[in-house]
Amino acid sequence: MYLIIYVDDIVIIASDKEGIIHLKQYLAQQLQTKNLGHLRYFIGIEVAHSSFLVIDILEEIEILNVKFVDKHCT
User: Fold this and answer.
1) Which end of the chain is less crowded, N or C, counting CB atoms within 10 A of the terminal residue's CB?
2) Is residue 57 part of a domain?
3) How is residue 7 annotated by DSSP?
4) Angle at the Cα of 54 (from 49 to 58), degrees rounded to 5?
5) How many domains does the chain divide into?
6) DSSP per residue, 20-74
7) In-domain check, residue 70
8) Within-domain flag for 6
9) Amino acid 8: pLDDT
10) Is residue 21 part of a domain?
11) Residue 18 gets which letter from DSSP?
12) What gap in Å lies between CA 61 and CA 36, rounded to an integer?
């Protein structure tokens, strides 16, 4: 699961739909969030809904090499 945060936007990328639901519920309890539905544009980039394309884009912009925060959402 990837959680991408840019200023005041949060994007969740995962193949586990149940995990996404739990994360969204947790975030709604902790933060004032609004679900805007399926992602169409992010930071000026049109988003296609394909798991392979998303990974390719993340690799291309080298976001897969960033340092992640190890937090457990329980």
Assistant:
1) C
2) yes
3) T
4) 155
5) 1
6) HHHHHHHHHHHS------S--EETTEE----HHHHHHHHHHTTGGGS--------
7) no
8) yes
9) 76
10) yes
11) H
12) 24
